[in-house]
Amino acid sequence: MGAILDALHRLQQVENELNTYRVKEEALRRKARQVERQISKAEAEFQTQREAVTRCQMEIDQAELDIKAREESMNRHRQALNTAKSNKEYAAVLTALNTEKADASKCESRVLELMTRKDQLLGESKSFEQERGRLDERLKKYQQDLERYLEETRSTYQRLEKEREAAAAGLPASALATFERVAAHLEGDAMAEAKRVSARGEDHICGGCNMSIPLEHINRLKSRDEILVCSSCGRILYTDPVGARHA
Ligand SMILES: [Zn+2]
User: Residue 222: pLDDT above 90?
Assistant: First the structure.
């Protein structure tokens, strides 16, 4: 492999290592983001629920005011019974009193109903708070995992970034541009080895997409330091990575 292809290959290896770190970091960040979304959802539900408790309490207060007003009215009717001047008047006041009594009793049932509902809502609030507590714990753990990971990998990551810079600096601008264009297109996987199909024979396939490579390409790769891309997948081809760092 010529100097340019060798440098590109080295660049690809550094990129691959960097990418392993990025993927892991992103996975950790994603976990934390997911819990953050769960927290905002729980928070919104909790808010709705707290508003329901407030509305319930307002209805209770209103019903209790109604009961009080009816009780006062009932007292006035009771006094009116004592001072009724005729049977007819007495009967009319009694009817009004009984109607008030029936209405007050309805109001009282309603208050009981509302109080039961409020207790139920408050019970739900408690489980919301517990769920929220669990989610907060989980988020804290994921954030710590991420921080620990970043801390542990910082020096390696910085070293790899320097290596990438060095590998890129040794390349002609056009070669680097081709590499970056292909890498951007194929999620960082810019190079593929031209592999011999069998120990004997000269048939080669692209290690990236397994499609066959014309022999003419192989000869050019072996004789010149030339950038050739696979006609199927577009990866930059190389043969015999003798200069590979991990060879
Ligand atoms: Zn290919």
Answer: no
